[in-house]
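Re-run with default settings, no changes from the original entry. Doing this only to confirm the output is reproducible before filing.
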Amino acid sequence: MRELAVTRARYGYRKITALLHREGFPQSMKVIYRIYREEGLSLRYRSRRRLKSQATRPQRICRRPDEAWSRDFVSDQLANGSRFRCLTILDVFTRECMAIEVGR
């Protein structure tokens, strides 16, 4: 088993079990797994590749009021359990709330 694991480094205990069955060793998968773990042959997990982040556009710099607005949804819950959402519209330069629309 150790010889198979060394020659095939990316094989786990299941593939090694299949190879051993082909060679004529009729042990169960549980027995082979126990021996595999005792020998310290556990397969190392590969780390996931991180996706490249998309290039972000530079933020516009506002120089006066009413040049750019931002909007956002805010939600909350009342004491009786009913939920509501608010659409807030803000002036980016002054950070003043221009409008709030509330709905269920």
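Strands lie at 69-77, 83-91, 97-103. The chain has three helices and three strands.
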